Amino acid sequence: MFDFHMHSDFSEDCSTPMEATIEAAIAKGFSQICFTEHVDYDYPDPDFTFDLGTVNYEKKIREMQEKYAGQITVKKGIEIGIQPHLFERYHKLLNKESFDFIICSMHASDKKDLHNGDFFAGRTPEEAYQFYYEELLYCVERFDRYSILGHIDLVKRYKKLDVERNFHDIIGEIFKTIIPKGKGIEVNASGFAYGLGSPMPSRDILELYHDLGGEIITIGSDAHKAEHVGHRFDEILAMLDDIGFENIATFTDEEPTLHKITEIR
Ligand SMILES: [Zn+2]
Ligand SMILES: [Zn+2]
């Protein structure tokens, strides 16, 4: 099994050394994992800078690959925090450095932080959801330097809707934009830990992705602590199988490799 979203002390919001997470993954029988450290340029909360020491990161990943060779494959990934004014800066970074896997996530919208709640001030939850998805659509129409979209319905984690509205129209537009470009999405298990009762995205959105022809999907724990590696992956695999997905993707040098779900389960 594979876990393609996790953080170590190279991410500003995480203090877990890579070794701890790798050893937890080996103990759980994982064959391949990918660290996806944060780079969030111009992050609106001044308490965080979310930059990455790329030279040390490269060096550390190589060390880990050698140290754990034969036990587990360790990939070098990155999670970029996209915003409409940052395409150029990310192009520069991603052209200079090499990564196996690039997660494109939106942690700030309208130049405001989702996490600290600023983005939701002065908006109804419906307005906030709509704005978030429209801005994400704007980004994926213009920015292609990534492998998959991270936790696409993240906005749900911070603000619950009173009335059940699924936003499938706008999310469908996002899928219709990314699928022909060969981009995928992830299933992010941290939704369980944040009390959503499901991974991110939720099953209805995964069904929509499947209905629109989406095939590239990765699974990630978004672990910031070693014990969260692979959290509830069995349930996620069962759900994906049930929806009708056939494969899980891993990435090397930004190229996907597909693995049959029936052979992993
Ligand atoms: Zn994220
Ligand atoms: Zn993450």
Bound molecules: zinc ion
Extract low-pLDDT stretches: none
Q: What percentage of the residues does DSSP assign to strands (E)?
A: 15-25%
Physical arrangement of strands within the biggest beta sheet: 1-2-3-4-7-8-9
What's the multimeric state? Answer: single chain
Structural class: alpha/beta
Number of helices: 10
Large-scale geometry:
globular
Structural account:
This protein is of the alpha/beta class and about 260 residues long. Helices cover about 35% and strands about 20% of the residues. It contains ten helices and eleven strands. It has helices at about 20-25, 55-65, 85-95, 125-140, 155-160, 170-180, 190-195, 205-210, 235-245, 260-265; strands spanning about 1-5, 30-40, 75-80, 100-105, 110, 110-115, 150, 185-190, 215-220, 245-250, 255-260. Strands 1-2-3-4-7-8-9 form a seven-stranded parallel sheet, covered by helices on one side. A hairpin with a 2-residue loop joins strand 5 and strand 6 (about 110-115). Helix 4 (about 125-140) runs parallel beside helix 6 (about 170-180). It starts with a strand and ends with a helix. The mean pLDDT is about 95. The structure holds zinc ion (2 copies). One zinc ion binds near residues 5, 7 and 79.
